[in-house]
Amino acid sequence: MARGGGNRSRLLLVLLLVSSLFLITLDLRGVNLAGSIRSGVTTVFSSIEGFFSKVFSPIGNFTSDVRNFGQSKSRITELEKEVDLLKSQKVLDEDVVGQLNQLKQVLDLAGRGEYRVVAARVINRGSTATFKQTITIDAGSSDGISKNMTVISEAGLVGVVKSVTSNSSIVLLMSDPTFKIGVRIAGTQSIGVVSGQGGNKYLLQLLDATGEIKVGDNLVARGSQNGSPFVPGVPVGTVSSVQSNASSITQNADVEGASNLERIGVVAVVVSNPKQDPRDALVPKPSPTVTVYVTPSPSPSASK
């Protein structure tokens, strides 16, 4: 019997330690415990000899603690879900704000170019039918969109519509290796062709033998006949480096795209050709240089 009593004592100590750990865990999580549970545990530690003589009483209290812990754990899970929901709602709100900003800016660009456009959201990236670089937008023929229409972002060219359903369209991005567009160098009006290279870097081949390419040159779309597939005046990109090759017949340069195709969420499809070529009106204006004049303070010795 003595051995049985020792086993019961060890079991009781283990149960008390486990109960304590449960209570500490709940306190760290910020869960308010019932006063009866706290007083019960206090009683356990203050009168441990009495609990040794009444083995089943602490086991009953322990069972109650486990039940309350289960309820608290369930509540904690519910609160964690609510927090996750609020976090996701915050992300959603930020995304909506970002899309509204993109929409405002793309409509501003379209207005300055006098383009009539249909705004749309990007709902998918990539094509299930091909490995070409494409996006899917949530506007189609029911919105007046058809094949071979120019697609722009708030910064400039995005691509061209390649296929249309009633409620969606697939746009071939200008980064696709098969993509080519005729461009002009803003200012000098030298003409060339920009080709996609699979990323945000493009290749410019200057067709004007007498022209010159310089780093920082802005490129705009020349435009196609009747504005299809490209309307004139849309910013295409900026020359980032000039390739020097004496054996090459044409002058080549690397171009950084005007639009960041990885971050676009809202685009606009130009559904009609502008009445007149915007020429260089949509080229980004350089930030003005701010001159700061500093007037030296007189030295203490000079003021005497």
What features would you describe in this structure?
By secondary structure, the chain is an alpha+beta fold. The chain contains five helices and twelve strands. A six-stranded antiparallel β-barrel has the order 1-2-5-4-3-12. Strands 6-7-8-11-10-9 form a six-stranded antiparallel β-barrel. Strand 10 (235-243) and strand 11 (251-257) form a beta hairpin. Helix 1 (2-28) runs parallel beside helix 4 (56-113). It starts with a helix and ends with a helix. Mean pLDDT is 77; it is low at 24-63.
Compact description:
The chain has 304 residues and is of the alpha+beta class.
Sequence-ordered SSE layout with sheet pairings:
Layout: H1 2-28, H2 35-46, H3 48-53, H4 56-113, E1 116-125, E2 134-137, E3 150-152, E4 157-164, E5 169-173, E6 180-185, E7 191-196, E8 201-206, E9 218-221, E10 235-243, E11 251-257, E12 266-272, H5 300-303
Antiparallel strand pairs: 1-2, 1-12, 2-5, 3-4, 3-12, 4-5, 6-7, 6-9, 7-8, 8-11, 9-10, 10-11
List keywords for this structure.
globular; alpha+beta; 304 residues; six-stranded antiparallel beta barrel; six-stranded antiparallel barrel; 35% helix
The overall strand count is: 12
Average predicted confidence as pLDDT: 77
Largest sheet: 6 strands, antiparallel, barrel
Placed side by side, the strands forming the largest sheet appear as 1-2-5-4-3-12
Determine the fraction of residues in helical runs and give it as a percent range: 25-40%
Work out the strand percent: 15-25%
Low-confidence stretches: 24-63
Radius of gyration, rounded? 35 Å
Query: How would you classify the helix and strand content by structural class?
Result: alpha+beta
Measure the end-to-end span.
Answer: 104 Å
Distinct helical segment count: 5
The helix/strand order is: HHHHEEEEEEEEEEEEH
> What is the 3D shape?
globular
